[in-house]
Amino acid sequence: MDAVLSLLQSPVGIALAVLVAVAVLALVVWGVRRGRAGRDEAPLPRREEEAPERPPRAPEESIPAEPAPAVDEGVPASPTVAQAGAGAVEAPESVPSRMQRLRARLAGAGTIGATLLGVLSRADLQAADWEEIEDTLLMADLGVPATERLMGALRTRVKVEGTRDPQAVRQILAEELLALVDPAMDRALHLDPAPGGDARVRPATVLMVGVNGTGKTTTAGKLARVLVAEGKSVLLGAADTFRAAAADQLATWGARVGVDVVRADREGADPASVAFDAVREGAERGIDVVIVDTAGRLQTKTALMDELGKVKRVIEKQVPVSEVLLVLDATTGQNGLRQAEVFAQAADVTGIVLTKLDGSAKGGIVVSVQRELGVPVKLVGLGEGPDDLSPFDPHDFVNAIIGE
C-alpha cells in the first residue's frame, strides 16, 4: 500500500492517474452517445387512433343532378293545391274607389308638367329654353323618337298660336302628350271564358312574365284581388319554381283574398307542369280566371324564350292564353325597355303592367315602351298597398303629369 502511495506521489504516478481518468471519462461519453443513437433509430410505436394505411381508391363517378320532370306537352304530374283556408279574407277595395285614390296619388307625384309649363310660358323662347324642354323629356324616359316628335309639335303650335297664356299652353301640352300615349289603344283585359266543345267551363288564362324584382308575383296577387272585387272566381298558378319564396308569396296573397294556389311539391320542378295543372284544376272547378306566375330569370335570352314558350304551348293544349302581361318597373327607365324587348320576343305580350309609377319623373316609359312594342299599358301600380293596382287611363295619366 505504501508503495502504491509512493508511486502516486511521484511524477510518473500522477501522469498515470490522469491518463486513467481521461480514459474512464471517454468511455462514459461514448456509452451515452451510443444509447441516444439507438433510441433514434428505433421505430416509433403506432398511435392507437391512427388508422392503418389504405390502398388508394379509384375516383368516384360524378352523378349528374336529377333533371326536372319533363312535360312532353302530354300528361304532367298531379297538382299540389294550397288551399286559401277558412280564416278571415280581406275585402278588396271597390273598383271606383280604388281608381279615384290612384288618380289622386298619381296627380300628386307629377313634376314633368310643371317644368314644361314653366318653360313654355316664358315670354320669348330661346334656343336654351327648347334645350331645357328636350332635356326634361329625355330625363323622363320619353325616348328619343317620341321626344323629337313632341318637340316638333310644340315648336310648331307655340309659333303658330303665339300664346303665352298658361291655360292655353297647358292645353297644347296635354293634347300633344295624349297623342303620344295613344288613347285609341285597346287597354281592356280580355278575360272571357275560352270557347270549348265540351260542357266544362274553360277559364280565361293570364300569363304573368317579367324580370324578378319588378313586382311580378305581387302584381299577380293584386290582380287576383282586383278580379275578386269584380265578382270573378280566380285560381293562381305558382310556375316560378326556381324561387321558393315566389310560391309562398303567392300563397300569402291567395289567403288574403280567398284564392287557392296550385304549386309544385318541390323546388325546381318543371314550370310548364305547374301551369298545365293550374289550368286543368281551374277547368275542373269551373273557375273564371287562372293567373299563372312565371320565373323571371335572364341568364340567357335563349333559355328564357324556350322556357316561356314551353309554358305557353302547354297551357294552349287545354285553352288559349287570354293575356300575356309583361310587368315592368317604371323607375328602371330605358333599361326596362330593353327587358321588354326580350320578353316580347319570348312570349306574345298582349299588355304591360307598369309598377312603381308613383314617381312620374320616369313616367315617359309609358310612351317609349308602347312605341317600341306596339303593346298598350293596361295596368299601373302606384305603391305597396294591396289595392295599389288600377287600369291605366291615358287621360288621367296626362292630366296628372301636367297638374290638372
Automatic annotation (TrEMBL):
Residues involved in GTP binding: 210-217, 293-297, 355-358
Swiss-Prot/TrEMBL keywords: Cell membrane, Cytoplasm, GTP-binding, Hydrolase, Membrane, Nucleotide-binding, Receptor, Transmembrane, Transmembrane helix
Catalytic reaction equation(s): GTP + H2O = GDP + phosphate + H(+)
Localization annotation: Cell membrane; Cytoplasm
Top class in the EC scheme: hydrolase
Entry's EC annotation: 3.6.5.4
Organism: Schaalia naturae
Protein name: Signal recognition particle receptor FtsY
Primary residence: membrane
Name of the encoding gene: ftsY
